[in-house]
Write the structure tokens for this entry.
Amino acid sequence: MPPKSSKKKKKGGGKQQRLGTAARKEGMARYYKSLPSLPPNTVIESIKRGDDIPLEVVFEVVTDCEETQKNEPDKFCPEDQYVVIYKKLVDAGLVSAAFGVTVTGCMDKWQSSADTFPPRMCIMLLANMSNNDNKHRLQIAKGIQPLIKCMINVEKREYFGSKKHWHESIKVFIMLIVILHYQMRCWTYWYILMMN
């Protein structure tokens, strides 16, 4: 039977984790509200550093924009504040920044708070951006080789220096590959039809 002091330590850790989650949600809400006033380059630099709150907020913005454009095109408004922010972030290098963090994970350990923000989010961000824009798909397809090598290494099974992150990311990686393959194949068929 473990000593009583270790039990108390566990309870305290749980409370601390809950407080951390509440503070994190508050931080995300603040960042989301301040996003319209932030220069796009500042946001991109935060993503390149692997800062978890900017990365997660941008992921939510991209997901909302892409899903609305794909599933509810009648509700999609190009003048919407966050759609404009998304376009500005893309122009400032969002795809390259997300790709940089993703590829870094093939070689390095996760530098951010991986317990609250999983590294698979970057792959999900790339998958979401590749849904509607052929330019993004081509950019992702051109630079995806390091990620493929990392994810197919079933002997090592490490992503951001962690087996846990590899296992969490493998399904999202497969989803990205399927999206790229399907979309590129459709585009190729369309191109061939147009050329005949």
User: Anything to note?
Assistant: Residues 1-19 have pLDDT under 50 and may be disordered. The first helix runs from residue 4 to 34.
